[in-house]
Amino acid sequence: MNSSQKNKLRKLRQGLDDSTNIYRLIHGAADRWKDLYIDRIGDYLLIQSAQSLNEKQKKISQALSYKLKLKGTYYKQLDRQIQKTSNKESAPQLIAGIKAPESFEVNELAVRYQLSFNQGYSIGLFLDMRSNRQRLIKNLIEPGFSIFDRSSGIPSILNTFSYTCSLSVCAAKIGAVTTNVDLSKKYLDWGRKNFEINNLNPNDHDFIYGDTFDWMKRLKKKGKLYDLVILDPPTFSRSKKSGLFQAKQHYGMLANAASKLVQKNGIILACCNAATLSLSNFKCNVRQGILRGGRKIIQGVHTSQPLDFPTTLDEPAHLKSYWLRLN
Ligand SMILES: C[S@@+](CC[C@H](N)C(=O)[O-])C[C@H]1O[C@@H](n2cnc3c(N)ncnc32)[C@H](O)[C@@H]1O
Question: Taking Cα atoms as reference points, which of 16, 80, 78 lies closest to residue 49?
């Protein structure tokens, strides 16, 4: 990390960045707190660990909450294997201070999101995807690699596995029209709400309840093409329509299907959280899937996690994000 990045991180974690009140304060071993993960979620602290907190961990949590003048502290048992998104029992539990409302809003990069501690394991926003949301807002992946060519009309996005549509909201903020696909009606409704609270009309966008694999076939039959196709599947999923999906085995197939829906010079964003799939194998699977689809890759870059998710050799990045422009 260079000194300007260190300054940015310090400002963010001290709560001095007015545009963002949701970020990671402690990211395990890289922040010298092995097995401990603490997030600021607006007015609340969310602690995650695999084992119950020890005295030292409780003390640092209290100190952070005090310093940031937070209202309440929640605790969630970390479960990397099964992301039980709908199970109430896996939801964060209040352990100190005042209970959060059923749902509440946070700001990230001056975009608003509705969150809840009462909807299972996940709270409505994946914090480690912030840099990807920022790339969409800025329409820039890295210098010399923009996402949309604004001179060629209104950009279109297919956001598969869209969850609460946060990536789509960022793209819509810069004028894109989005199509969101998810197996959960609840998350799509949540996504609509995220559009509304950002003064974006959800009726200008598509929200498709269904299986991504099934819908990618249907959209292809309809001749649809998009400037950006986003793939961010869970590590493991099962659907009635397409059966079992395991990122480690099936990512190539997913990238292949996506490549058929990308415009000329359009982009695929392929993300993956599977710890058992190495970065090199992931990139290889994605590339092979695209090439099998008869497309050429003309630009590609793997981007790193946000600064508040630092890594070590022992704890490498869990999130892999690969941006590819196709011919
Ligand atoms: C990791 S989350 C996606 C996070 C999202 N990209 C974001 O950044 O907010 C995975 C989502 O995939 C959805 N899902 C799981 N299997 C699916 C399938 N076969 N088709 C469509 N959506 C699916 C889940 O309901 C969940 O919302």
Answer: 78
Q: Is residue 122 part of a domain?
A: no
Which amino acids bring their CB within 6 angstroms of ligand 1?
Answer: 126, 129, 161, 163-164, 166-167, 181-184, 187, 211-212, 232, 234, 237, 239, 245
pLDDT bin (cut points 50, 70, 90) of residue 82 is low
The reply to whether 120 falls in a domain is no
From the CA of 235, how far away is ligand 1's center (Å)? 10
pTM beyond 0.85, yes or no: yes
Mutate to test the pocket of ligand 1, among 183, 309, 320 (most ligand atoms within 8 A of CB): 183
List Cα–Cα distances, 231 to 29, 112, 192, in angstroms.
29, 23, 19
User: Among the atoms of ligand 1, which is closest to the Cα of residue 184?
Assistant: 25
Q: How many angstroms separate the alpha carbon of residue 164 from the centre of ligand 1?
A: 9
Residue 154, φ and ψ in degrees, nearest 5: -75, 125
pLDDT tens digits for range 147-169: 999 888 999 999 999 999 999 99
Give dist(CA 213, CA 141) in Å, integer: 26
Same domain, 258 and 304: yes
